[in-house]
Amino acid sequence: MNYISSDHLQRSDPDQNLRHRQNLTCSQGHTSSLILQTLEGGSICLVCLSNLISNPNSPTVHVSYALSQLSQAISQPVFVHNLLTYHPHFLVSPLVTALCLFEDEPLAKQTIDLISELCSFGDCSVYGEFVARVSDRFSSGSLCWSRRQIYMLHCLGVLLDSQKNDPYTYIKDKDALYLNLVTGLQLPSEEIQGEILFVLYKICSIQDAWLGDSNGNVLCGHSSLILHLSLEALLKTQRDDVRMNCIALLSVLARRGFFENAFENDDEADNFMETTEHEVEKTPLNLLFAEAIKAPLLSSDSEVQTATLDLIVMYLSCGGVSEKEVQVLVEENIADYVFEILRLSGCKKDSLVSSSLQVLDLLSVAEAAFKQRLAIGFTTLVSVLRYVAEVPFHPSQCQSLKLLSECVSNCPGIISSSNIEEISLIMTGILKKHVDGDANMLPETFTLVCSVLVALMKSPSSHGSLSIAKSLEDISRFTITICLSYYGEHSSQMLHSLYLLKEAYEYSFETNPINPNSKGLRDCILDICETKLLPWVSMSINEIDEDIALGVLELFHSILIQSDFQPKKFVDALVSSSWFSFSFGCLGLFPTEKMKWRVYFLLSSILDVILGNDSGQSIRDVALHLPSDPVDLLFLLGQKGSHNQEVFCCQSAVLLILYTSSLYDDRLADDRMVLASLEQYILLNSSEILGGIVKPLIMEASINLYSLYRGLAKISYQIAYSQEAENTLFHLVTEKQSETLSTRIHRTSLKWLFQQERICKYLSSQILRWCRRCIVYENQVVACNDTETVKFKEIAELVASGDNYGAKLVVCLLRELLEENGQEDDIILLLNVIASVITLFPAAAGQLCLNGISHAIHNVCHHHSSSEEIFNVTCQLVFTILQSVNSESLSNDDDWITVATELTHYLVSSISENGCTQEALLVTGIICLILLHSLHQSLIEASKTILLNTQLISLVNKVIHEACLKGPALYDHDESTQTGEALIFCLMLNYFCLRSVHVVLPGIEDAQSLLDSESRNQQPLIYISIHCHDLCRLLHFGSTPVKLISSYCLLELFQRITEQKFKEPDKFEVKQNTHDIRSIISVLQGLVFHSDIRVATNCALCISLAVDWGNQVEKDIWYRLITEELVMTLAVSGLSSKSIMIYHKAAVEIAVLILKLDQVPEWISEVFDDTCISGIIQNLSPGNITCEMVKLFRELIRAGRLNSNHIACLNQLFQACRKRVYSEDIKDDETEDKKKVVVFPDDLGKVYEVLINLISHESSLNEELLEEIEVFCETLMESDAHQRPMASTSVETTTQHDYLATSRRRSHTIELPAGYNM
């Protein structure tokens, strides 16, 4: 049959074509209205086409060709427009018929494609008619296995899949269709089952989308059957495409509640096919479901696995699934399958991971059965957690954490320490990303993180982990940071964080408490509580809920009640932040019994830590009976406790609370009210206190509190007090001999007590008791045996201040022990305590001296010198006093004269009998300090007894003579040898005698006689002194310490000679000593470059003084060599460090000496030319300039060696130097207290250190530098204003005074540290 006209390929003129179209018919004579032209010029007769494809006898090749031509024509817009406009439904029936007639698969595919194209181009009516005709084919008869029915099912599936308009309305006999489709599921063909499942899936989906549940009763009527048949198909099929269709259908059915209905109507049979369904339902639905999903879960297609997991989620989420059904799935090992999916997938597909975790989360409802499976999959869960933790806001984070938490809680034995370490690191990473802002976190995630960590800490395996404690440190910081940062948005997180901190703190004790990691965790949590939680809760208490406040209090309480460790530092921080006031503020904001219980129990634990001895038990016993208002607490104090035992116990608790809070200046009520209540308590309960009913601690608390508020009243002068209460208190104190200093006490309380003269005797005994608790190490108090006693520093402050009887009490106690022959141990202990007080507070020495400690020292020296230990400790005390006290505080009474006499006698006899012992040299140091104080008109008579002691003079001469005889061997006798020690201390004694003699014995000094070598053996010395030549020998042969002190002695002697020259020039005879002076200068010249810069500088200054006596230096090449070497070194570029400048201080002094001469050598202009001076100035900076360099430039100005450029550069340099000095002085002022250190002479090295510092101590270098710069400026101004010959006289006079003033200021102005007024 030809359905395409034979002339479709002919081409004619337009007129012929027109006539042809008007008379067009096909070969069968069909009307032209049913013939449609194609774009190529041909035509298609719809009737012929219909007849061809609907005839079962038509050759398939013809049908296929016809369908291909039609498909090609439909792609042409004009053709398809004409077809759908004039004949839209003409081909519907033929195409459906063709699909039913032929079993050729390619032909069926062509037909289905044509139907799909026509539906896409046509309107809804065409699509609806196709749906109706195809569905009618299945509604009109039962299904059987055939290729044609497979094609028809596929076509229906394609039509339904397009979902154009609502295809459900075009299905006429829905019941019959459903019945046949459901029945067809029992056919043995997987292919037809797959097509049926897809059609059913699409029908259910369309119905759900377009009709909802309003017209779903047809399917619901077959719910049990369709579920069973679908599950059996899923169970039996081996094809993934069939599985996908089946799972899709089951998913829609689950979403529409079919499983729920099936579980509710488990015993009900359908009205039709009762027998068949009865046979199907032999297997329970839940078991069938469990068996059916196993194969898809193991499919190699991840999409099938994901769809199956989603189906399980829907199944478990429907309302009809009970815990029993869930347990069936678990027992059927579905959880194992899911864990295996996760393990094999390696977390590479997010959808698979998310669905798997959803399933496991739902399966966890069956706790008993699921617990075992969860334990098996724990390792897999850890890897999953690692994956989801890397993705911000991953939807499965919460589920994975929840599962981990359940596993850790229910199966703690399966977790290894490595698992715990890995999980803790993952948790740390999650929290850190949230804190750093790299990835935010859901509140639920935070809660689960805390839960998992708590469960991990409770696991036995965590106790052997080394790194979890370290991880918990970071976690603790991160969690509290998150809570504080997002408190306004997620306040509930704080409770979980607090619970985590509480468990972490307990965990640090459950492991090895001394392990560094455990200690680090403990310290970390304490730091968090102290630096983060405590300030936050104190500031935000008005904004937080009661549960949060209780959580913070519970955390703090759990920290304090750990029996193995008492966090005193944390408790101090707690109570120092006004915690008692804060606690009562909580009681006011949250007036509940729970809050009241928590507050008072926490306060009781604070008392346990601060006061010790289970002191908080008094509060715990009456916690629920105590009021919440501090005013009501004071009211309880005003009652008589003996009348009511409950009131009596409450009073004890109130006193302890007030007492402990007062220690930290946390006062809970008005001072007047507290003082009045305390007075009432004392007056009403004095008999109970005397009778011993009141515990000693409570009595001490009441005394301390009363003293505090009386001390505060004294400060303000506005609070009235009861004299009767004061008398009663003092009576109680003296009668009960209360150990006031055995408990902690406020400084104001302690000071007030020490200001009460009526109880001085009582306080004296208390001081002795307190001293007996002190721990003395190397004669210094280092601590107290009882840490809760009054601190040593508090007692020392009282002794040092002059507004109480502290110093007087100590001195009286010492005198009492000495006069009444007290125990030797007590005397020694008290002496050590006094020395320690002075070491801590040097001002205490002055107070002790003003209160007559010299009499006690006199008593020791006179009556207790036989006790070697007492004498030694006393000597150490005397040394400490004399190096600390202001000279004004020392009286010139007979006691010090006796002390000096006794010590001098001891020194002479001790050295004569035993040699230079440590004790003898310490006494030498004391004698030196006595002589030093004489410079300020103190201890004058005592100094006379020392200076004129002939035995001591002979002893010093003997030591010096023996040392001088050793010659070069003397170098080996340094401070480490007995000879060296004796020599060093004799030289020190000589130095201080030289300093003291002109003050103590004016007119007796003849320094020039010590310079004459001829008279040294002819005239005996009338006071302690050493001849100049002996000093030179010691300076030349001695060790470095000997050289140092010898140089100071020689410089002091030369200064005395120079002073004598200027005061009495007529008596000064130096010419006859010229040879001696030259020999002395030769020795000094050899030491100008000594390694100890102090020795070198002193020698240079001595040379300057000796030359000033009349020696000529023009012809001495040594001076030129020194000056040239100095200039070359200072002018070389790069050698500008401060150390270089200091090292050449002695050489600078020599250069200054040359420039000061009346007749300056001619070679000086060659050495100090413009180039060298410019080089020196260029190498100077504000940081390396020294006083000597300023002095050098000053003399260069006077010598006319500086030009205008030099002066301009120097002015700029000195201005920058002033700026630096002023900034350094500010820093020095800030650290001034740290510089005032008193050295306790517990060994001879410290005595030497003190004395050598006193000898070599210079005034402030910065101060001296500023003075020299000022003199330089004055000299510059004088040089500019007086360029006349008369200037020479003034220069000469200035020069003479400069030698004396400069040398004395630089090397002989001795300042005593810590309190001396020079």
Automatic annotation (TrEMBL):
Top-level taxonomic group: Eukaryota
A Gene Ontology BP annotation from the UniProt entry: meiotic DNA double-strand break formation
Annotated InterPro entries: ARM-type_fold (IPR016024), PRD1 (IPR044968)
PANTHER family in alphabetical order: PROTEIN PRD1 (PTHR36379), PUTATIVE RECOMBINATION INITIATION DEFECT 1-RELATED (PTHR36379:SF1)
Protein's recorded name: Protein PRD1
Organism classification: Eukaryota, Viridiplantae, Streptophyta, Embryophyta, Tracheophyta
